[in-house]
Amino acid sequence: MQRRSFLGATGALAASALAGVATAVRAADLQALGEPRPFDFAWLKGAARAVASRPNEPHGRELPPDVAALSWDQYQAIRFRPDHTLWNDRDLQFRVGLFHLGLYFKRPVRMFEVAQGRARELAYDPAMFDYGKSGLAGAKQPRDLGFAGFRLHARRDGFKSDMAAFLGASYFRAVGAEGQYGLSARGLAIDTALQGDEEFPDFTDFYFEAPDPKSATVVVYALLDSPSVAGAYRFAITPGEPLAMDIDCALYPRKPIERVGIAPCTSMYQVGENDRRMATDWRPEIHDSDGLSMHSGKGEWIWRPLTNPATLSFNSFADRDPKGFGLLQRDRDFDHYQDDGVFYDKRPSLWVEPKGNWGEGSVQLVQIPTVDETVDNIVAFWNPAQKLQPGREALFAYRLFWGSTPPVQSPLAACVATRTGTGGIVGKKREYYAWRFAVDFAGGALAKLDWGKAKVEPVITLSSGRAEITSVRPLASVKGARAMFDVVPGNSLDPITVRLYLKTGEQSLSETWLYEWMPPALDERKV
Prior knowledge:
Blueprint: H1 3-17, E1 32-38, H2 41-52, H3 65-68, H4 72-76, E2 79-80, E3 94-99, E4 110-115, E5 118-122, E6 129-130, E7 149-154, E8 162-167, E9 171-174, E10 184-186, E11 189-190, E12 202-209, E13 218-225, E14 229-238, E15 243-253, E16 260-267, E17 269-271, E18 286-287, E19 291-295, E20 301-305, E21 313-320, E22 324-328, E23 349-354, E24 360-367, E25 378-384, E26 394-403, E27 414-422, E28 435-442, E29 456-462, E30 466-475, E31 480-488, E32 496-504, E33 507-508, E34 512-517
Parallel strand pairs: 4-12, 20-34
Antiparallel strand pairs: 1-5, 2-6, 3-7, 4-5, 7-8, 8-9, 9-10, 10-16, 11-16, 12-13, 13-14, 14-15, 15-26, 16-25, 17-18, 19-20, 19-22, 21-24, 22-23, 23-26, 24-25, 27-28, 28-31, 29-32, 30-31, 32-33, 32-34
């Protein structure tokens, strides 16, 4: 799914969609379908298990021709009416708005309200929407048309903007204090970066549990379905900085799955300090995230800068019972982006914190070439070593944190910049090809280190080739240090994995910086 389709549908409409909701307006009557039925998470898991026992069938219906033919501008013109938001007539901390079908979102999703342990489906009503200049005649739309997704709003900002939105397949986004959308999460990733086609499961049903009037948390349930698996999800969402989502999911495979991605994070990286391959834009940097952070089961903190590779790149980081991982936007300096339209310096980071022990597996990173910023090209997720099998329930629980910084920080110095370029010694003729790395670390013990007494060393290891011209020195501008070195690939054409951390004596001073560098072809190594 193109990231702009989601950002446009959620972000561009957010400011006007609920204008005036905070005023004392009684909600128009929301029509219901059928009779209320008992509901809880156990029931939803049973429903998912039952769905998985049957062959997968495409859900939904053929859209009316005028809805199916909506252009980008026409779809953007459709507004959800503020007086139809769910719970607008009740003194609760949250409201729910709904997305219309059309454009990229053609599969109807069923919506239910849960109150006092009973669920009742919400009916589509053309009166819910202001069709504006979309060209649609709302009154002519069928009453069973359905919805594309939903957005959540909180009293904390007067219900003026989104705090989260679920739209398209199993994609969803949320915001922290900056109020800026960026990267997304998914319910599940299936067979990402394999030879065949990737499978994109859908959230087919959502259940909104009416919260206690004073509750700062809203609970949403979802039913997931795809050709390979069905699943039941529970989201407990608490706005703030960062916004927190407690997620419980139960998966019921229909068939063996080669590669499953738990808690998948999806982002975009086109150009940054370390990768200028596609630097044809006037803006210095273009990315929603600049690195993958991992806190391993053994306690090691690892930072992997992202790249925009020339060919698809896949990396697997083996671990047991990981403490956390996520795609972060560490660089929050406007001057580094100069984008006053979409504000990449304000894009949220997304941190995944497993609940309980996840056992053996790996954090996997997929980086796909992209020529512009309209398509997400970065995916990171947990892949359990034990493959999901049909007939066996698989349970996972985790927390997602959306905001400027993760809730848990390494006590060590963090990598704050990675730069690369031609190696060698300035003013001296180069005799062979080398590539320069300059890595900046800040925080931790480096901020107060007495460089006159402490001997700081860069510890560098390579999967092939050799490192030379190594150095580390204080860097006052970041209250930290800069490590510099050249990598000489020799005749290797394979990717070279580079690891670096700083130490003094036996004491580690920094997290581990981990990079994969692809040497150019032999005939491209100019000296």
